[in-house]
Amino acid sequence: MKKRKKKKLKISKFEKILYVFAIIFLLLAPVSIVFTKSTLSEINFKVEKMKKEIKTQEKKNESLEMKINELASLDNIKDAIIKEGLTYNNDNIKNID
Length: 97
Description:
By secondary structure, the chain is mainly alpha-helical.
């Protein structure tokens, strides 16, 4: 009985480099996906926080506008005029828009 010779598979340098890059890619792909998702989650958290701050500031602005309108009402102006001892003359009032 003859012994069979085992054939060695010869792998070229290009194939070795290709296999190495494929293995590196397969190892780094899940890591990069997790990193990307965590970064996206962090950014979404910051966006929600900023939205909350914007809503709070809008409420403050609305409150201040109401206060300005209240203080600039004709009744308050008349009261201030009377307190200072002046007379109210509607003909002398000019509105500037």
